[in-house]
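Re-run requested by the PI after the first attempt was lost when the workstation crashed. Everything re-entered from the original request form. Ligand of interest: zinc ion.
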Amino acid sequence: MSETRVPTAPCSKCGRPVAETARRCIYCGTVQYRTAPGTPERAADEAAAVEEEKKLKRQAALYRAGVGMPKEEKGAAGQKAAAGLADILISVLMLGVRPIWAFKRLRTIFKP
Ligand SMILES: [Zn+2]
C-alpha cells in the first residue's frame, strides 16, 4: 500500500499545515498567497481573494436562507396526495358496505 502525501506549508495565520496547492487554509480560511509580495501577480491574487470572499459570504447567506433545500410546499403536496390515495382506498372498500356513502365520497375525490 503506497501513501501519497501532498506537500504542505504552514498557514501564515494559524501555522497549521495546509496543502501547497490550496488557495485557503482549511482551518482558519486565511488566503495563502504563493506569489511574491509587491508584484502585480500578488495584487491580482489579492483582488481575486476579495472577490472570492464576497462570493463566499453570498453563498453562506443563501444557504442560511434555505436556498437549494426541499420546499415545504412540496412536502405538503406529497402528504395531500397520500391522503387522497387513502381516501380512494377507503371509499372503494366501503363500496360493498355503504355503497351510496362510498359513491358520494368517490365523486367528491374525483371532482375536477
Ligand atoms: Zn490557518
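Saved to the shared folder this time. Strands lie at 8-10, 17-19.
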